[in-house]
Specification:
The protein is α/β, with parallel strands linked by helices and 490 residues long. It contains 18 helices and 19 strands.
Length: 490
Amino acid sequence: MRVNYQINTTPQFRILSDDQIEEIFFATLEVLRQTGVRVYQEEAVELLRENGAYVTDDTLVRFPASLVEEAVAMAPTRIVVAGRDRSRKITLEKDHVFFGTGSDCPFIRDPYTNERRRYTYKDSYNAARIADSLPHIDFYMPLGLTSDVPIGTYDRHQFLASLQGVTKPLVVTAVDREGLADQYYMACEVVGGEEAFQNEPLFVIYIEPSSPLENTKDATEKVLFAAEKNIPAIITPCPSAGGTAPATMAGILVQALAECLSGIVIAQLQNPGAPVIMGGVVTIIDMLTTIYSYGAPELTLLSAGLTEISKWLGLPMFSTAGCTDAKTVDQQAAIEGAISIAVAALSGASLIHDVGYIESGLVGSYDMLVMSNEIIGLVKRIMGGIPVDEETLAVDVIARVGPGGHFLGEKHTLRHFREFWLPELIDRTKVDDWEAAGSKTLGVRVHEKVIKLIETYEPEPIPKDVENRLKDIIAQADERHKAEEKVALA
C-alpha cells in the first residue's frame, strides 16, 4: 500500500502566500472603512446607507468590514456562460482557465495595407469571425471600437457585429445602463427569452470603476441593472502604479481590491447572490513614456497576485494576457504575449482577456490574435502536466525494446503520440523544406492565416427573423438618441 503520495496533475505556481493575501485583504478592509469610496449614484448610496455603510458629502461611502465580508459570502463561486451556439459554454470556477480577446481598441492595422486606422463595423465583424475560428479562443470581447455607427449607440451595433460573427460566449461593454439594457434584450431574443438567459447567460458585462476609489454614475447604474437581471458582471478597476495608485505592488493590489469590492457590495445589496466576477487590469505607468503598459512584467505579476486573492475569496477572476506594448506583431510582441499567457494560465484565472492587443491597448490586431492562439495552444499543453501511472511509466515497453532499439513500431507509441502538441504556425520543418516553401517567418505565416480567415471563414448565421428583431432594437435606440440630441441642442 502506498501512503503519503502526492500527485501534481498540472504545473504548480504561486505568487502570494495565504498570510500575504490575508494581510492585503485586511488592508483593503481598512481602506474601505477609513478612506472610503466615492459613489456618484443616489440609489446606490441610499442602498449602502440603509445597510450600514457610513455616508458623508452625499457621495463618500465608508464600508464596515462586516458589510464587505457578507457581500463576498453571498456572491456565487461558479458561473456558467453559453454562446449563441448553446453547446459552447465556459464554466467560471476555481482554476478553470479560459482565454479571450480584449475590447474597444480604437485602431486597427489594416490587414491588406497595414494602415493604422479606425475600426469599422466590418472590421469588428471580421474580428469576431477570426475569433470564432480559433480553437483556443474561448470567449469573445468586441476587439475594435466601431467608429462608423452613431456614437451614442455604438455598443448595440458592436454587439450585433459580435453576434453575427461568433457563436462563443461573449464579454461586452456598454455606454450606460440603457446600452446594457438594450444588449440584454437583444441577447434574450437570441437565446429565446429572459428565462433562457437567466439559466445560461449569453454574455458577461464589463464594468469599470474609476481609479482612485470612485464609482461613476454610469458604472454604478450598470452594476445595479446587471444585478437586477442576473447578468454576470465583471468589476474591473484599471489603476496604474505610480499614476492612479500607489507605486508599490502591494499598495496597488490593496486599492484595486477596494475598488472591486465596492462594486461587489453594491451588486449584492441590489440582489443577493447576483453573479459577479473580480477583475483588474493592474499595471504601471511607464515613467519615461507615461503609457499604461500592457507588456510590463508588473502587469503579469499583479494579475497573478490578484487571481490568487480572488481564489482565496472564492470569486471568479477576470485577468489579462496576450497583449503587448509593441507597435506591430514582432519579436517584442511574441515575448510579451507568450510570457503573459503562460503566467496567466499558471495563475488559474477564470477569464483571461486582452488577447490581440498591441500598442498598449490602442490597436486591436488580427495578427496578434492569431499568433496568440498558437501560443495558448502550446501553453495549454504545458498545463496538461506529466501523467505518471503504470501505463505512462512504460517500464514493460522499455524492456521490450531494450538497448539500441527504437519505439516507432510499438503499439504504446501509437496509443500515445497523438498526445504530442502539434503546432499549426510554429515551424518545425527541415531547412531545405522551409526554404523551398519561401523561407517564411512566423509573422508571415500568421498574416497569411489572417487573410485566409477573412476571405473564407463563415460563421453559423443568426436566423433572419431574429436578426431583424435585433436590428429593430438598435434602430429604436438610434432614434431615441437622435431625439435626445435634438432636445439637448434646443
